[in-house]
Write a structure and sequence with these properties.
The chain has 19 helices and six strands. With 443 residues, it is mainly alpha-helical. It has a two-stranded antiparallel ribbon. It has a two-stranded antiparallel sheet with strand order 3-4. 42% of the residues lie in helices and 4% in strands. It folds into two domains: 153 residues, Cytochrome Bc1 Complex, Chain D, domain 2 (Orthogonal Bundle), CATH 1.10.760; 168 residues, no CATH class. It is found in: Cell membrane.
């Protein structure tokens, strides 16, 4: 009898728990609307919304890049995740395939709570865990901007998530574990510039989505904020004091990098980071970029770390100096001179603009040679890095063994860190992530 009562109690508790979860996970649909006329929004609000969209890089994830590309904001961008491919939504005001029938209330609920207009829980590849921090005004402005874009009729491909991850109701379990809802609250111990930067970085710009490692459930690891992570085959480096570069990412360097795509002492923006300065942050008010730079200079403890910058710069310039008038004996140095030194040679006292100093670059100081290999294989187009400066792809010119030799040479001559391991194997792995690049291509 006692056993039956015990089991009945467990079953009852399970039933109540299940009902409680359903109550938490289920959300009503919000009635659709007739798409609002573009003229119903003021030009000032639409412009403010454009800035919010640029600071959130909305077009980057909501514009298809494979299959020949697609219209801006029409979705169907393939996001590769450890759980399967996810295809982004059409956020143009098309009534059938986009958000034309979404009210501002529905739009705000999606941004703040990760719930679609029909009541379904959104997959957290959409970073509502950051967008929840946005103010109602910014969301209202963003809504105005999106509703005044050209409507595009385009249905995204079905997501490729396995059972049970494809059940939207169960996405609420992820929220229970990892989602904290709430608009950003200013920190009274910091000034307005710091708080503006924190709001942008932690909210609409969702910097942690790329620069924070994730756990097995795909959530950002608690206690590891801005520690760096792997994104699309590249390493998004740490943005905090764990960043290994010998010279500090101070506020000026951060601003130059975020605004122009190149920082004098750290190099150029490439890979998934390249569109951030070139396509987006170069189009927003300078004061907002300054605010983000100000915030991250605090996060990486720049004021303290910068005390050693002068010595680190002097050492780096000495390490990178190459006397081209004397014959080179080291075969790896010969390879470097033939492939790289013509562009990456610098002399004291500081690196030349457009000539990234590898001794100061994240690519050589990270735990893995990933970013170095990606830069070698892909190169940089005129639209990446510094405007008009091109680095050719060495995909066809250098073998995996050649890249391994270059990586070993640069690591031992340009850093004070232990050598990387399995370099040729890792070169082959990096090559496998890059589409074949035609001979004589500059990218």
């Amino acid at each position: 009898m006692k056993k039956r009562i015990f089991l009945a109690g467990i079953a009852g508790a399970g039933l109540l728990g299940g009902l409680g979860f359903l109550a938490y996970a289920w959300h009503p649909a919000i009635a659709d609307i007739t798409p609002p006329a573009a003229s119903s929004f003021s030009a000032e609000q639409v412009e403010r919304g454009r800035i919010v969209a640029a600071e959130g890089y909305c077009a980057e994830c909501h514009t298809r890049t494979d299959l020949g590309g697609g219209p801006e904001f029409a979705g169907d961008y393939q996001m590769k995740t450890p759980f399967g491919a996810i295809y982004t939504s059409n956020i143009t005001p098309d009534p059938q395939t986009g958000i034309g029938k979404w009210s501002e209330e529905a739009f705000r609920r999606a941004m703040h709570r990760g719930i679609s207009r029909d009541g379904g829980n959104l997959i957290p590849a959409f970073p509502y865990d950051h967008f929840t921090k946005m103010t109602d005004q910014d969301i209202s402005d963003l809504y105005a901007y999106m509703m005044t874009r050209p409507a595009v009729h385009l249905t995204h491909r079905p997501n490729e998530l396995p059972f049970p991850l494809n059940i939207r109701l169960l996405q609420a379990g992820w929220k229970l574990l990892f989602f904290k809802q709430g608009v950003y609250q200013p920190d009274p111990t910091h000034d307005a510039l710091w708080n503006r930067g924190a709001y942008l970085a932690e909210g609409v710009a969702h910097c942690g989505s790329c620069h924070t490692p994730r756990n097995l459930m795909g959530a950002e690891k608690s206690g590891s904020t801005y520690d760096g992570a792997v994104v699309d085959g590249w390493i998004a480096p740490p943005l905090n004091a764990n960043n290994p570069t010998p010279t500090t990412w101070n506020e000026d360097e951060l601003y130059a990098y975020l605004r122009n795509g190149v920082a004098p002492l750290h190099g150029s923006a490439g890979g998934p980071m390249s569109p951030v300065p070139h396509r987006f942050l170069s189009t927003v008010p300078e004061e907002d970029v300054h605010a983000i730079a100000h915030y991250f200079a605090f996060v990486d403890n720049a004021a303290v770390r910068a005390k050693h910058d002068k010595d680190a710069l002097a050492l780096a310039m000495n390490q990178s100096s190459v006397d081209l008038t004397h014959p080179v004996v080291d075969p790896d140095a010969k390879l470097y001179q033939g492939a790289c030194a013509g562009c990456h040679y610098n002399s004291a006292p500081t690196p030349a603009s457009g000539r990234p100093e590898l001794a100061l670059n994240n690519a050589l100081w990270l735990d893995e040679p990933t970013n170095l290999y990606q830069a070698i294989l892909r190169g940089f187009t005129a639209e990446e890095g510094q405007a008009g400066v091109v680095m050719p792809s060495f995909y066809n010119a250098l073998s995996d063994k050649d890249m391994a030799r270059l990586a070993a040479y640069l690591r031992r001559t340009r850093t004070t860190l232990p050598p990387w391991t399995d370099l040729e194997k890792k070169a082959a792995a990096a090559r496998a992530t890059v589409e074949t690049i035609p001979v004589n291509s500059s990218h």
